[in-house]
Write a structure and sequence with these properties.
Length: 114
C-alpha cells in the first residue's frame, strides 16, 4: 500500500486549500481513510476520517471548516480546508490501516500566515 499526498502550500488566514491523497496497492481500496497533521514541535494529531461508505468524523478543532471526501473508483481522498487559521499550519498526512498495519503518506506542508 502506498499513499501520496498533494495540494499543500502557503495561504493567508481565512484562505482555503484542498489536499488530496492517492492510495495504491492491492488492499488500498474499501477502507476508512484518515487525515492527520503535525505542527512544529507538537505530536501528530487526528483531523478527520471518512469510512468506506462515506460517513465522516472530524476533530473538534475543525469546527465545520474542513470537508473530507473520497472517490472510491480512484481510491483517493480529499480534504477541503476553509477559513484556515495560523494554528492549522503543519504537515498533513493521510493514513490507511490494512490488516492492523498503518500506512502513511509522506505528508504535505500547509502554512497559514499573513
Amino acid at each position: 500500500v502506498q499513499l501520496a499526498e498533494s495540494g499543500g502550500g502557503s495561504v493567508l488566514p481565512g484562505g482555503s486549500l484542498r489536499l488530496s491523497c492517492a492510495a495504491s496497492g492491492i488492499f488500498s481500496s474499501g477502507r476508512p481513510m484518515n487525515w492527520y497533521r503535525q505542527a512544529p514541535g507538537k505530536e501528530r494529531e487526528w483531523v478527520a476520517t471518512i469510512s468506506e461508505t462515506g460517513s465522516t468524523n472530524y476533530a473538534d478543532f475543525v469546527g465545520g471548516r474542513f470537508v473530507v471526501s473520497r472517490d472510491n473508483a480512484k481510491t483517493t481522498t480529499d480534504l477541503l480546508m476553509n477559513n484556515l487559521k495560523p494554528e492549522d499550519t503543519g504537515v498533513y498526512y493521510c493514513k490507511v490501516a490494512v490488516f492492523g498495519i498503518s500506512y502513511w503518506g509522506q505528508g504535505t506542508q500547509v502554512t497559514v500566515s499573513s
